[in-house]
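does this look right to u?? FE2/S2 (inorganic) cluster version
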Amino acid sequence: MEKCTVVFNPVKKSIIVKKGANLLEVARKAGIFIDAPCGGKGNCGKCRVKVVSGEHQMEFTPLLKEEELKNGIRLACLTFIEGDMVVEIPHVDAVEGIFVEDIKPGDEKSERIEKACKMLTEQGFKKDSGAFSAYLKLPSPTLDDNVADLERLKRELRKKYGINNPVCSLNVMKTIPAKLREGDFRVRGLILKDKYSCEVVGLDGFYTDGIYGICADIGTTTVAVNLVDLTTGEIIAFASSANLQIQYGGDVISRIIYSGEEEGLDRLKKSIVDGTINPLINKLILKNNVKRENIILCVFAGNTTMSHLFLGIDPANIRLEPYIPVFKECPELKAKDVGINVNPEAKVILLPNVASYVGGDIVSGILASGIWAQDENILFLDLGTNGEIVLGNRDYLLSCACSAGPAFEGGEISCGMRAAPGAIESIKIDRETFEPSINVLGDIKPKGICGSGLIDLIAEMFLSGIIDSKGKISREVSSDRIRYDEDLDVMEYVLVRDKDSYDGRDITINEIDIDNLLRAKAAVYSGLSVLLNSAGLTLRDVDKIIIAGGVGSNLHIRNAINIGLLPDVDESKYYYMGNSSLIGAYLCLLFQEARDKAKEISDSMTYIELSTFPFYMEEFIKACFIPHTDLNLFPGVVGLLEKNKRR
Ligand code: FES
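got this back:
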């Protein structure tokens, strides 16, 4: 069998592979990150690499322009190795940055968290994480008091803290003699206690202090982590980054498919734990001078597929009828079982799922939203990668998952990106000149468009007459920003010209992107219609609508209504909650009773499988138009269009 050597620059990593191997697959094997939201199907055009030298073949794709081909640009997933090669990997936004932020009192994030804590305390929940430092002064052993070290420690814990027979792992036991004698029998025990048991998870010097926890939202696209002081409840800092699994596909389905490939499951598990979560934790503890051993409690929330992949459990049956996950509620684990780089004995809690496509992140969000304590009918929409919807109040909770795909986090959109520095987060288009004005996250040139920007863009293009209700770009509009892409045979609108963008390429949106976005918004709106219908309710019965998820905090509700993503109801009914899953995980970190509540929510929530509703498809097709085929549902949008006509 003929072998070839492939060198990846700038990291200078080389790998020997057999001739004919697929370049994307080879990069994955070599541990090289290449963005691949479509999972290697050749649809998204994001796996661009530059072939510096070497024989290869690439299948035809209309996604690369002639100029790019001339410059050696290839799509890795369509490229096959024919000889020794040198390949240059572009700087990829997805892995480029871990975004770290201090949470200050009074800012938006901390206000949302405070509000959720207040809601829990008003419901009678007691703030008690179960983690504490036990400061112990043990009598030194003598010939008369020759009790063994472990028993001596336990005796003092019983005397001072009323703790009977705490558990102590072999690893901790091994440290006891040295730790006791180092501090002249003064020691700090790191204790985790709940209603069933108590464990000594570490020993430390008497005068050191600080015990910490981690709470995290494991999103399909983005992972967000808080480092929390467990004594005060203060969030020391927040960090987020892309989920490194996006190199294996942008949505849960492509990840499940990839997990079935050789080494697929192992690579997915490593990407999320070693490639994403541990680097985020490292960054947080280094920046804040926190000792890893002092992090003794972790709470994670993720959708059902992410929960499986986080534990390295095969998710295959989630996507096969009748859609059965391996587990709904995961037993408590230790950090060392999962590979989380904190105190190895730290307790790891993974919030319970509801069903195949409604997971612990939604349970966590519902916990934080407080819907379960309200009399009003509340709609909760999580707009991230895919969309999950919950309808309910203190008496019932109904949920469904819409296959919206990753469009609202910028996935499968040619110039889409997640809400990170360089993302265009809001857009306006002049009705006369069709010139856009944009807002970019961070102090850099624009790199792409995130969810809130995409929603603005579709709404603005529609209201200014650039696109019609089917999302087709008009050839009548006179602007040099509107042009025909011969290779793809579609019209496109240039939002940012090459000279003004971060990487010197035009930032555009074409009719294929618009179609993807319309399908995504239709999936959400039709899901919402079916959910209301199955509860025997109409929009008039809904008192409040909570929006959560990774769509971006700059979401303009009015524009989301204008494109028919959200219902056309009084805007004062809407409330944007941000990352509700992370807030819920924080609550579970600090309130033991919140963990029980999460379990109760997971058990009581009814999951509705949309595909079993005969009229779901009909609703979906109607919602694929802007805003909808039934304009009576969108009186506000009709009003805006009429106002435009009168101009
Ligand atoms: S086009 Fe190659 S991964 Fe999407």
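The chain is about 30% helix and 25% strand. idk if thats expected tbh
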